[in-house]
Amino acid sequence: MTYWKATDGQKRIEQQKCRPQSVYNSPATDSNMIFKQDRRGRHLSWPHAAFDTTTTITISRVARIPDPIRIERFRRAPELGPSVLFFTGGTALRSLSRVIKLYTHNSVHLVTPFDSGGSSAKLRDAFNIPAVGDLRNRIVALADESVRGNPEIATLFAYRLPQNDGVDESDDDSSNNLRKELDDLVSGHHPLVSAVPVPLRDIVRTHLRLFRDAMPSDFDLSGANLGNLMIAGGYLSYPSEERDLESVLFLFTKLLEVRGVVRPTVQSNLHLKATLEDGT
């Protein structure tokens, strides 16, 4: 069957001879007629309405949440995993971060640097820098713990100097022991540092030395976290007007093979403040 373009006169003749009046009673016009020619050369015509049919197909399936197929796909190729944004502070997502890195390497963590306790508080008071403890905690949680990562640096990053519980902070022997351990770390004689392969070991030693050189003589090292000290050392190595916390964090996320992005919400030494109804 081939299409045939009829002239106006031919259209009127074919409309009278071939239009199926028994089916379509509406008057035929040039605008609603279709003309075709069969193999014998006969001209046929019928209204467009004969082809105006609508078919509705409904397809449904059972969805399982979580989808085990997608989960297995992300587990096998976490670098192709979904993008997830976390806006948090503290250690609330530490356990979750250790698991989510197994399924995606595309998570972004915006961490608030407002911690005012522990090792971070001492660093904030001494150097007027943002709190780095929560940032360091998230970096360690997202670090690659497989053979492709650097577990020696992760162990060093999470290590704390001995806590002088019940000992006067001004005790000379206690302070001297802590400073001696810091010196051993800087020199590379400490077993935690000597276990780190070169050249990563040199980077660790450099950042610890930068902190030691900037450390006030009365700084309390009791319970200090080495990861915090290294981040602080890198931050303090910049001139005061050019200090950039994100650049330091980027370096350590590469050293620890962090499977995600960790960034501070602000780079200023800020504190959260609340005013109660009674004005306090």
Give me some keywords for this one:
280 residues; mainly alpha; 3-stranded parallel β-sheet; 11 helices; 9% strand
Question: Which sheet architecture does the biggest sheet show?
Answer: 3 strands, antiparallel
Q: Going across the major beta sheet, what is the strand order?
A: 1-2-3
Classification by helices and strands: mainly alpha
Percent of residues in β-strands: 5-15%
Given the structure, what is the number of helices? 11
The run of helices and strands is EHEEHEHEHHHHHHHHE
| Low-pLDDT segments | 1-6, 11-15, 17-26
Global geometry: globular
The helix content is: 40-55%
Radius of gyration: 37 Å
C-alpha termini separation: 91 Å
Mean pLDDT: 82
Number of strands: 6
Describe this structure in words.
The protein is globular. It has eleven helices and six strands. It is mainly alpha-helical. 40% of the residues lie in helices and 9% in strands. The model is unreliable at 1-6, 11-15 and 17-26 (pLDDT under 50). Helix 4 packs parallel to helix 10 (226-236) and helix 7 packs antiparallel against helix 9. The strands form two sheets. A three-stranded antiparallel β-sheet has the order 1-2-3, covered by helices on one side. The chain has a three-stranded parallel β-sheet with strand order 4-5-6. The longest helix is centred in the middle third of the chain and has 16 residues, at 172-187.
